[in-house]
Design brief:
This protein is mainly α. It has twelve helices and no strands.
Length: 299
């Protein structure tokens, strides 16, 4: 595919790449949860972003891709990177006040943000009535799968704050995608777009960790090292690089609908890796999610 070619629908390459990304992001939820017992959230998020930024720089250097040339992308890159960092700060902070099940439902309102915003950027990406119905069906499947979490109450008495931060994270995630498509980043390489995201967010998250006094562990176990390597190399470097390449070449609204499968992949990963049970509710939700995504992406 040409570096500047943009397609109007998702082909086999895009669907396969998206499924790999969503599977890895679902596994990442398990890795983050496991690592929190040994490292604080902002340090975890900041270090993995900075480590992945270094890998992107090495990758671009080896491929002769220029990351620091003046091409008018600085403003868009700082905006997208700032939104990306704030999104993770909201997620990790919000989890102190609300349940993970509630948080994941609020986060995955982000495809609606993209669907509502993209027509102002590209009229060709306006969803039809059928596609809108498919998006609602896909989100309803995710919400229903995690509905049991809405019966959980926070011991802190500030569950509303955690829910609000989850909603804000969804707005920031959707805003990041819109910022990439609305600015000169839409013509930048995937490597440069990702470098902005990781570099700016990593510096911001580490600064936040220092500001609130989070402690960085000086001795790392093999377990923590492995979890951080997975998050840094496989997720933050490889899968995000693939994602930003997809955002550059395919319709953002249709890509966003696929991300709704991520939390359900997380549930499956938890069942396979942590021995958690797979309920009939999850099976039905997966079927409904598949149907919804198919309606959004049907030609």
């Amino acid at each position: 595919m040409s570096p500047t070619q943009r397609k109007t629908h998702l082909d086999t390459l895009a669907v396969g790449s998206l499924l790999v990304c969503c599977l890895l992001w679902g596994l990442n939820q398990v890795a983050v949860k496991a690592a929190l017992s040994e490292i604080s959230p902002l340090w975890q998020a900041g270090l993995r972003s900075l480590g992945a930024a270094g890998l992107v720089w090495l990758w671009a250097l080896a491929r002769g891709i220029k990351l620091f040339e003046r091409d008018g992308t600085l403003a868009g890159g700082l905006l997208a990177g700032g939104l990306f960092g704030l999104e993770f700060a909201c997620i990790f902070a919000g989890l102190q006040y609300t349940s993970a099940s509630r948080m994941v439902v609020f986060i995955y309102l982000s495809p609606f943000v993209v669907a509502l915003g993209m027509p102002f950027i590209s009229k060709s990406e306006r969803l039809s009535l059928r596609q809108s119905a498919g998006l609602f069906l896909a989100f309803a499947a995710v919400a229903w799968a995690f509905a049991e979490g809405f019966g959980q109450t926070s011991t802190s008495g500030r569950q509303w704050l955690g829910d609000a931060l989850g909603l804000l994270a969804a707005l920031l995630w959707g805003g990041t995608t819109l910022a990439i498509r609305a600015t000169k980043l839409s013509a930048a390489t995937a490597e440069k777009t990702l470098f902005y995201q990781l570099g700016v967010s990593g510096l911001g998250l580490v600064a936040g960790a220092l500001l609130i006094g989070e402690t960085l562990p000086l001795q790392w176990s093999m377990r923590l090292s492995g979890l951080m390597l997975f998050q840094t190399v496989v997720v933050s470097f490889a899968s995000y690089l693939m994602w930003f390449w997809l955002v550059r070449h395919y319709p953002a609204t249709r890509l966003a609908s696929f991300t709704l499968s991520t939390p359900l992949f997380g549930l499956l990963a938890g069942a396979l890796l942590l021995g958690e049970s797979i309920s009939l509710r999850l099976g039905v939700a997966l079927l409904a999610l598949t149907a919804g995504v198919a309606l959004v992406n049907k030609k």
